[in-house]
Amino acid sequence: MTAPMMLAGFAVSAAMGAVGKVADAVSERKDAAQDADRLREQADDFEKMFLEQMLERVFSAGGEEGIMAEAGPGAEVYRSMLSSEYAGLIARGGGIGLSDQVYAQLLKLQEG
After folding, report:
1. How many Å is the maximal CA-CA distance in the chain?
2. CB hemisphere CA count around 1 (13 angstroms)
3. Residues 57, 60, 63, 66: is their CA dihedral positive or negative?
4. What DSSP line would sit under 70-106, residue for residue?
5. Lowest mean pLDDT among 2-11, 46-55, 101-110
6. At 68, is the secondary structure helix, strand, or coil?
7. How do the domains of the chain map onto residue ranges?
């Protein structure tokens, strides 16, 4: 094998290594972006769950007055569904800021 061919082989190997490193870096960035998206989704879900629990307490404390005063069959199911729907609407409308705090903490924990 001649020297130019050996150099060309080394150059190709080096180029392939560099391409592999770039591909790995791009893949890591995509993974990091996907991880950040998953963390955001989890933080949003946590805020919705928190709001849902809070609203269920509010509705159950209403006693015999308010929008769910009728204590007929299935009232608990409807109260739960209403709490869930209201919590989703509040969370999608910007929430109470809990999601942002949870997201920031999750990012800190992930970074180490």
Report:
1. 94
2. 8
3. positive
4. ---TTHHHHHHHHHHHHHHHHHHTTTTSHHHHHHHHH
5. 2-11
6. coil
7. 34-111
